[in-house]
Amino acid sequence: MGTSIVVVEPDGYTADHLTKTFRGGYHVHHERTGREGLERLKAVRPDVAFVDLYLPDMDGRRLLEDVRTSGMETSVLMVSGKKNLGAVVSCMKLGALDFLEKPFRPDDFYLALRRVEERIRLEREVRRLRSEVEKGSPYHLLFGANAGLRDVQAVVDQVADTDITVLLRGESGTGKDLLAKAIWQCSSRRGRPLVKVNCAALPRELLESELFGYEQGAFTGASHTKQGKFEYADGGTIFLDEITEMHLDLQAKLLHVLQDGEVCRLGGKTPIRVDVRVIAATNRNLADEIQQRRFREDLFYRLNVVNLVLPPLRERAAEIPAIVDYFLDRFSQQYDRPAVPVPSELLAEMSGYRWPGNVRELENYAKRLVVLGDVDGVRREIQTLRAKDRSAEPAAESLLEPEEFDGKTLKEVAKLAASRAERIVLEQVLAKTRWNRKKAASHLDISYKALLYKIRETGLE
């Protein structure tokens, strides 16, 4: 089963019994004081905790309350060698799953752990059902009919309820902040804060104090001590948007936080432990940023545990009518305006537009439709934008320059042109599959080995 258990009690009685009763499949950790127990609970985040009512440095009920308010999903069972009906009642009100009296009967542990397992099963089922019925939530728009987004949703379902660091990539306006919120909402940390920091919105000095806080007197104007965003997010999640805009010096400090789980305020000398899940986002090409030495390679590897790419709206044209409907309903309620019928002609224009501003741009047009009812104006504007798109498209180019024909037979020219065309197709398919070679090989209907050979042969390696 692999159940992790933390026992917090001064005498070790419960820990000894658990170890003897369950020799396999249960990992038992024992701490003797409330302070040590809380540190162990934050580090392990176990399935079950047995907490003694009478600890040498605090009342066990205080530890129970700390666990319940920290956002941990740990099931807490209180134990005591003294009968105290009032304590039993107060512990159950604070959220204890059960209260066990020492000495234990052999069946006490079995029954208590069966209840914990059933609770865990029910909570997982509730999370699954919630994700299915939340059709009206805004981030439901992220997971439509697009194949790329179905892949994203599959990964989100797997990693949301973990502490894994997630890196989100995609053009501006594709919904990276919405996806970060979806991951937080589906995690066990949803009861704790989601703190968003836009790294592009603040200059370096202000961003540093925002993230890490400062001590009184750390600099001119620091008249009081201030917590940073990482401290505010303790127990929860921090979303670092546009992380590639962060100065290299701050990137080094962020790397330290990810490695050690500690922050140090400006002007401070004592590190502060924080338990924060990090979600980062960028609209830039990280490989280029690393090559240009604007982004630390070691930080990239720390952040790039799970990498999710949101496709642009132009690749999701089939979903545009559904997204428009969602925004129209939302803004009709928000502004107390009647629903606006959108003619099929306008939807067709919208579906054919490239949407450089992605979902955010479409949202603005939907708001305009509701507030102003300007259907004809929106249609004319999108028609004009589409016409500009078409006029800006480059003319079709020859695969070969005229000088490349010189001195070559028709067979040699044909072979060179075929090789050039092959490279172009490979580049497009690999970009579309985000360099997933197995998918690319399947798409091109060639073997995986043949694809690798073609990549080397065309110099795309």
Biggest sheet details: 5 strands, parallel
Number of strands: 12
* CATH topology term of the largest domain: Rossmann fold
Shape estimate: elongated
Q: Which structural class do the helices and strands define? A: alpha/beta
How big is the Rg?
Answer: 29 Å
Number of H- or I-type helical stretches = 19
The first-level CATH class of the largest domain is given as: Alpha Beta
How many independent structural domains? 4
- For the termini, the CA-CA separation is 44 Å
CATH architecture of the largest domain: 3-Layer(aba) Sandwich
- Order of adjacent strands in the largest pleated sheet: 2-1-3-4-5
Helix content: 40-55%
Task: Explain this structure.
The chain has 461 residues and is of the alpha/beta class. The chain has four domains: 3-127, 3-Layer(aba) Sandwich (Rossmann fold), CATH 3.40.50; 147-309, Rossmann fold (3-Layer(aba) Sandwich), CATH 3.40.50; 313-392, Helicase, Ruva Protein, domain 3, CATH 1.10.8.60; 402-457, Arc Repressor Mutant, subunit A (Orthogonal Bundle), CATH 1.10.10. The chain is 49% helix and 12% strand. The protein contains 19 helices and twelve strands. It has helices at 13-21, 34-44, 60-69, 85-93, 106-133, 147-159, 176-185, 204-212, 229-232, 248-260, 286-291, 297-303, 320-334, 344-352, 358-372, 375-392, 410-432, 437-444, 448-457; strands at 3-8, 26-31, 48-52, 75-80, 98-101, 166-169, 194-198, 237-241, 262-263, 272-273, 277-282, 306-309. The strands form three sheets. A five-stranded parallel beta sheet has the order 2-1-3-4-5, with helices on both faces. A five-stranded parallel beta sheet has the order 7-8-11-6-12. The longest helix has 28 residues, at 106-133. It is elongated and about 95 Å long.
